[in-house]
Amino acid sequence: MLEKVDRMAWSVDFGETILDGAHYAELTAFTEIYDARSFRDAALRLGVTPSALSRTLRRLETRLGVRLLNRTTRSVSPTEAGALLYAKLVPAVARLEEAVSDAVAHHGAPVGTVRLNVPRLAAELILMPNLLRFNAMYPALRLEIVIDDALTDVVAKGFDAGIRIGERLAQDMIAVRLTPPIRIAVVGSPGYFDVHERPETPHDLSAHRCVNYRWANTGQLFKWSFRGPDGQIEVDVEAPIVVNDTGLIRDAALAGLGLAYLPEAAVLPHISSGRLVRVLENWCPPIPGFYLYHPSRHQTPPGLRALISFLQASNERSGSAIA
User: Is the pTM of the predicted complex or chain greater than 0.70?
Assistant: First the structure.
């Protein structure tokens, strides 16, 4: 990306200083490193190597005659001059990006790549059913989808946006609702219930084998949450099988290995076919639906804007199918 900007033939009026493409690339590199506090993560977002990014920053510091970022082998932190430059630079760059985005949107269909970080269930329930139609509508726009059930920092890892259940959204982000609230289902196979009594309350789960989820970023086990006459109940289930992939949890339940706690839409076809049996239905309240979220610092790119509008329209057409 930086190399492409370096070759740009236009210049930008930035206050009293005229910036050519190379200077703009240096400032872009600086803001990305400042945000990520990491040369590696910033380089990933910009599509260059960390060494190339380091050279670009050194050129900027040499040209300005001031050190902008302190860096060691383990950390990156702004100097006083760097913090001042960043504070002045961000709103100006945002205005430039908005002008470019508006020009691209006026010219025609969005192009480029939109990088998404999404949990497996969101990919299965929201993205996959709509990809063919989206691709036909926006053939010049490429989606790069990374399946990730952990609570990854999408900005630091170079993603344009993420999809998460509402209660797990990162702060300081723009959040766009994609689905209505989601019902939870506790399910097991008919074979499992041939040898185990069905639980009548969440407390009965202590006598059951359950397939549970472990958060990769914290190492904590997922707590099964229910709502009864006396309010919220959280249960630490006995989990002889623990994974960090919701698809594997569903497959394990289908194989009769234990009970699973999953969004209803992920298991509803198997409940309808009789391959899974639902229990504790009256104890499972709705939870916030899926949201797409993205950084609020920059103008929303045309490609991401097109994806958001498309997914919202798709959800309106499907009604409350995920609720």
Answer: no
